[in-house]
């Protein structure tokens, strides 16, 4: 170790100090690691999971020996002669701290690691977390799943959904990840896809539980959160950015076939709505279930709904409008494609050697086995042939969270360790399909599921299936913590279904909800509408002239904002900076450190969406800076201000120092 | 060990065999014991608890040495040199197997013991369990608490109650106990009051978890369940029986003062209702809370409600009617008694040395500290002076489950180890107060809370606070598993509030529910009504002539049945046999082994209460015997029969071989 490195990584008086941050303390007295053995029980109900661990053994380890080698420190931990664990702390060439746990004795499948914590510390990240931006005070099981309906055990909606095993909780997410950022200005990333549970409840430590031994943990520090996020994204990867055509307006989620789509498109255009794309998820046909309108997962066009689709796509393209579709990595058991996949052994198997059928809600599917290179290639080519070559400009690459833990995979790897990884294998399949296309830069796919690697292999996140309401944990406003937490760990681009998706148990979308959601979406990377799971029972913009006019205005803003947004996206591609940034990234005041109802869009815009119905004004917290209200041009200082916020004037502020002041003034004139 | 004993307790091929039952198997390979350390977190919300264990260590032990001594076997268990546990298996003079766990090395506060299980085995007991009679397939946290409202996480009532931390679960009970009976015809009793969790989910073992090391575990076998229960009650104690006057009719729960009570009494007598006692829980006054009408816990008569109470009691006594009251071991902080108790240091303290105030729902109370002999004596004398000497013939001795785990007790014992014991200390206080009275045989107290020792110190159980409906887990029919499970472990006498108690979230008592409950109560040891927590909003028998006539008929049955019931109660006192007996006690068919909707009242009556509204017939399972339908006199064999069951003809059958045939025929004629 060089003298310089010695200063950056040292053990001083029972503390492991990395860049002045005490990462581990009480090295000789505190059980900073425990090993154990457990037996997992996993119940899956349509992507919702019940996890139970029967723990047969847990051994807290004592520090036996601390060794300083040439380029690293090694902690030898153990307990009598039954368990030995070595933790090697190496400062890498990139100035990262790499901690490698190695079991030297014993047969263990559970590991607990305790990091030092400060009482007033905040923690962020752990994938896409929807209920809490600051994770402190809670624990987070990290397991890829449906987000669940309601996501709050105190709501009637969740209670009702739980009767069908479909209610979520504060931690349920399509995208969990064993990566977090501390307000002490370091990140911690664990190289593992096993089930984990990160517990941030204790005042003096964070406890990281793993159902398996991670390959390594990586830490890095920075002097500010912007560069910390940038450094983390250098480790985990960055997005490819967005095609230029996405700046042309909204991507309209429409269904029902060419005729209906064209009718609605014409109607919206007549009201001045600027349209970038038509996203028809039912291009492959529909099936009705009790949950609502579902799609027919055979991945070939429904020629009765969309006759001559390739020609039609071309015609739309001529008028400046792209066509987008939908795909996921499952194949319906009642399709021709299923026969082909079965014949070739492309699907994951059950223990009897047959295709493992997964219940998706009144229909069953085979799971494309991405551990089989031939199956991976088959599905990649399917995307190329059925989507890209047909002229699709993009698609929703749905799902990825449903890998059962009792499948038999082609490579015989453990499904418990593959489950959380599956979304990124699926992302990679899309990534490679796109990369091979000469039009790669003009293609757009977006996913809700994620894992380590999604930062690079997924182009654009969407926040999953919100309920069509204003509810705590599952409504409009909870797309913000989703974007902020995933963004801080390198998923720079996110967006959500305008108007929400899930309509169950009497929750139906109102016109006002749609309008407020559209206002917010104008200040995100992408505007995209969704008709929801029960289109006929919910408010649709194309049925209402006032809402169409409102959407037209929002698309005006969106198009006008393009130069700024393109710069924001460039920061995402080049620096790994999120488009939607938490206030804490630049302002260290305690309210900013926890704020999850507002965000910065890029560096210069502060957005505080109205998240309740029937509001004429809205309280906006402004951190310490000089702000200008977008619509009134009025200057504001820091503090909480009650701001006029009628429909059509969402609370948005720009920084007086911004180089885009003129653009923002133009935008403010479009109200 | 004598040759005879050797045959009864032996270790043969890795199995510990006791009277041909394999209690422990795989002695050398199976971790039949684990030791650990944990830190408990306990949150109490008005008697409802959230328990969380942070387990820092769990060590499965290996068998190191098996020793046969003169009169016992000893298993030395251990793990490397860090944990040693000795399990001594001694056959006592009574032919009981006494297992004594002793920690030889290490500082442990968690113990797991694994007993051998058979795949088709049933388990019963664990105190008063309301949701399941056969406990197999579930685990049972054993911690004294409110039963909780609804007691089923799938019901809307429980969901609503959970918003106020007041919803129960299948295992929540006023009376948990670390004692069970196996269908292999042995009992297991653990001598401990610590928190425990008995897990009967595995096919091949039962896992008993203790948050502390039990003094000992006792096992005993029998050739049939009747003698097994009798043997267990010899170990744990037996009831004193019931005063003769309880045979005179119903004990009426009435409130509102002498005037109102007399009016209603007269009205009921006019309809032919036979009254044994008037139970006026508001003798000490009332206070209104949002939950409903509550009592004023200062334990002195409310002279405005009940003027000259002693004289009035005497007057009622002259007309053959007893008076009963109410008391519990708490003292309201706004009472004169509280000042006296505080001054003398009779209440449990908080860490600051002040009286620990417990929240009982909009009022606070001091907890009489039964570990302080002077406080115990004080409260015992209070019962004598304020109740017995005033002429009370009985009282509800309510509560006992609310001992907080962070109190400081007089004897400095650990409240975690005292919490579950508290109900039996409270029972003992009542027991001693009664025993000192020359009229002891004529006094009656009844409790809902219990623990090991309640078998002797509590005279009569009542099944706690049912909801006023037919609901699963919390309605009428769940008083049956309550009586059966507690009865099998020696609490021979139980009963319930006719009509239920808890009316919340729109649940209100119907006339039909009251009538069905009264029908059932006629075939239990005691008939007692309750007006419920919200008397004005719920059906009351005295408001309805038809219901009064029905109740009159039920009291006729009850009085007529006295000779039989007295014999049943004698069996309780002399043999420890429960008055309400499970079918499995005498019939080993698989349906009988699990039946929890029917019971035998004594040996000869089978009672199958109608547990749903608007039923004209009811399906009755009859085990293998010769049965006679009480009301029609029709003979039935075994099997399930759809039986006529209009109001006034609850499905009751008697055994043809019964010595009480004539009495039953008389009874059947009273329909």
Automatic annotation (TrEMBL), chains A, B:
One of its GO terms (molecular function) is alpha-1,4-glucosidase activity. It is an enzyme of class 3 (hydrolase). GO terms for biological process: carbohydrate metabolic process. Residues 576-657 form the Glycosyl hydrolase family 31 C-terminal domain. Keywords: Glycosidase, Hydrolase. Its EC number is 3.2.1.20. Residues 258-564 form the Glycoside hydrolase family 31 TIM barrel domain. It comes from the Bacteria. InterPro entries: Gal_mutarotase_sf_dom (IPR011013), GH (IPR017853), Glyco_hydro_31_C (IPR048395), Glyco_hydro_31_TIM (IPR000322), Glyco_hydro_b (IPR013780), Sulfoquinovosidase_GH31 (IPR052990), YihQ_TIM-like (IPR044112). Belongs to the glycosyl hydrolase 31 family. NCBIfam families: PRK10426.1 (NF007746). This is Alpha-glucosidase. It comes from Secundilactobacillus folii.
